[in-house]
Amino acid sequence: MATAKKAAKKPAAKKSAAKKTARKATAKKAVTKAASKKRVVARKAAVKKTAARKSAVKKTAARKSVGKKTAAKKTARKTAAKKPAARKAVKKTAAKKTGAKKAAAKKATAKKSVARKTAAKKPAARKAVKKAAAKKTARKAAARKPAAKKAAAKPVAKKSPVKKAPVRKAVAKKNGAKPAAPAPAAKPLNPAAAWPFPTGNRP
Q1: Which pLDDT score is estimated for 121?
Q2: CB within 8 A of 14, min separation 6: which ones?
Q3: d(CA 47, CA 58)
Q4: Is residue 174 a contact partner of residue 125, using CB atoms and an 8 Å limit?
Q5: pLDDT higher than 50, residue 161
Q6: Burial category of 23 from C-beta neighbours within 10 Å (exposed 0-12, middle 13-18, buried 19 and up)
Q7: Least confident segment among 99-103, 162-166, 188-192
Q8: Which of 73, 79, 172, 203 could tie 195 with a disulfide, CB 3.0–4.6 Å?
């Protein structure tokens, strides 16, 4: 009986040992499953992190591209703003050139008008000078005329006494008186002495 009980205990012990090993194997499987799950979760997390990093990189690239586009737009706006300023500067320079041309044209016209006025004044001045010269010559001629009249009157006055001498001779002959002594011959007239400005032979 005792041997039968021992023999019965041995397979039971074997079964329990088998159960323990089965439990250990299941525990190991569970551990390996949990580890594999953890690994998968970790891999998934790593994949998600890489995806997140990639998305972040993409977002930063997109932001940079947007920033570049905005910068390009700003530069385009600045260049567009500079163009009208340049046009205004060109217009100002053109306006200055036209103003300078107008001023030069005005100066030229003013010079021409002044030249015309002076040219018109010159013949008038010449006429005035001619009139003054004519007046001076008329005055000189008027001053010469009375002097010439005086010079002409003096020889006539001197000639009249010479003519009276023969009349006296005729009166003496009628009275029967002796002929009187001949009167002294009249001195020849010196017309140079009668002229107010003695010049020699001609008055």
Answers
A1: 83
A2: none
A3: 16
A4: no
A5: no
A6: exposed
A7: 162-166
A8: 203
